[in-house]
Amino acid sequence: MNSDIFPWLAQPWKRLSSRRAALPHGLLIHGRAALGKTTLATLFAQRLLCEDARDESLPCGRCEACVWFGQGNHPDFRLIQPEALAESAEPDPGSRKREGESSSRQIRIEQIREVQEFLAIGTHRRGLRVVLVRPAEAMNVAAANALLKNLEEPPPATVFLLVSSAADRLLPTVRSRCQRVGVSPAGDEALPWLAANGVKDPEAALAYAANAPLAVLEEADERPVRDAVLRELASGTRDPFALAEACQGVAPPRVIGWLQKWAADLILARVAGKVRYHLRQATTLRALADSLRVAPLLAFDRSLADCAAVAQHPLNPRLFLEDVFLRYAQLLEPHNG
Fold first, then answer.
1. Which domains does the chain have, with CATH numbers?
2. Rounded distance, CA 23 to CA 181, Å?
3. Cβ-Cβ contacts under 8 Å for 326 (sequence gap 6 or more)
4. How far is Cα 224 from Cα 203, in angstroms, rounded to an integer?
5. R_g of the chain computed on alpha carbons
6. Dihedrals phi, psi of 159, to nearest 5 degrees
7. How far apart are CA 11 and CA 36, in angstroms?
8. What is the pLDDT of residues 43-83, one digit of tens each?
9. Which residues, including other chains, have CB under 8 Å from residue 28's CB and lie 6 or more apart?
10. Distances in Å between the alpha carbon of 157 and those of 27, 148, 171, 183, 320?
11. On the CB side of 72, how many CA atoms lie within 13 Å of its CA?
12. What is the DSSP letter of 334?
């Protein structure tokens, strides 16, 4: 194996490579977020189009096909994704949106129709055509049904790669037309990689990120704020206003995610004496959990789920977070112990 692939993707890569001898027309690469599924699918797409690769090796990166792919203009490859993901620092002047118009977070039927036009002509390099759809769950119903027609009657020499962090949200008929390749949460093989990328205490960081290594790096800038908030939570603070103040500049969904993990570990510590996310705070969490009753803990956890549903666009983020931390403070009141 070439070292350019994330170490925890070595086994999924082997499973993908093993399908090259009898390549299906549809592959569904699925697993939780921040595991590198799109990287895996993109490398496999390039490998399928590479003209100088061997066996289970990664694409050569040198042939004409790989050069085109790296430049984003291989004529036999199409990437289908929501406009919001496709935006770049230098947007295409020909696709400028009207003032006030936002980018779509869905994959629209028009995008699938463009793929159908692409499939109507022969391949340019006399090899395969590859269509990568990510995240596949972003397809609206019309787009999914349009893609289904291609999966049911696949054009020759064409492979569809669907990447999803929520495969259960895909149409069952779409799932059934694809062979599935699961990407499991990373294990100890990710620890040296995290350490090499400057992560301190990679074991604790990986546990907190639910074994999703890329999430560790994505949240690195927010880690000092998160750690400060966690220290306050561990100390049993009852000052919701100070906690909300500490979170200024952090997106509310992130803060709710921190609290959901904290609540989950409190519940786990209370009923099983162990934790999942906060390895270094296990003793503190067990002591805090022993002072709380299960019912209020579960009620607080359910309230966080409700908050998560509206956290993306709260009317007033500061008041929103103050209210959430006030609920936590109430959880710690003696009558809830």
1. 7-84+104-184 (3.40.50.300), 186-213 (no CATH), 219-336 (1.20.272.10)
2. 13
3. 240
4. 17
5. 23
6. -125, 130
7. 13
8. 999 999 999 877 668 899 999 999 999 999 999 999 999 99
9. 136, 162, 164, 167, 170, 175, 178, 179, 180, 181
10. 14, 17, 24, 26, 53
11. 3
12. G
* Residue type at 53 in one-letter notation: A
d(CA 113, CA 119) in angstroms, rounded, equals: 10
For residue 29, what are the contacts with CB-CB under 8 A and spacing of at least 6? 12, 16, 37, 40, 41, 161, 162, 163, 164, 181, 183
Alpha-carbon distance of 123 to 2, in angstroms, equals: 28
Distance between CA atoms of residues 125 and 111, nearest Å = 23
Q: Are 230 and 258 in contact (CB under 8 A)?
A: yes
pLDDT in tens, 79-110: 999 998 876 433 343 334 444 445 688 999 99
pTM of this prediction? 0.87
Q: What are phi and psi of 197, to 5 degrees?
A: -95, 20
